[in-house]
Design brief:
This protein is mainly α. The protein has helices spanning 3-25, 29-53, 60-75, 83-93. The protein has one domain (3-93).
Length: 95
């Protein structure tokens, strides 16, 4: 990954964190939650992609975290507009 791509990823992550914090401080909790939920979904999708397309493996600590996320999703289900995205995330959480 080139330095400029790496910088863009870090900048994007910082902006996302700022966005969530800004909305929380403005008492826009639903906006902040939706932003954080989207970030969680993006991370899960990326993990699922790596598992399907590389030799990446889930270690026991990551498995424990995925179990916690699975329980969270049961308590707070998410609506998806993209069936492929939904399938990838659900297949990861069902492993």
């Amino acid at each position: 990954m080139g330095n400029s791509r790496f910088f863009l990823l870090i900048r994007s992550a910082a902006i996302d964190k700022w966005g969530a914090l800004h909305n929380l401080r403005q008492n826009k909790n639903e906006v902040a939650i939706n932003l954080l939920e989207s970030q969680l979904d993006d991370g899960l999708f990326n993990i699922a992609y790596m598992l399907d397309n590389t030799d990446f493996k889930i270690d026991p600590a990551a498995k424990q975290t995925l179990n916690k996320i699975r329980e969270y999703r049961k308590k707070y289900p998410r609506e998806y507009t993209n069936d492929y995205y939904k399938q990838k995330i659900n297949s990861l959480l069902d492993r």
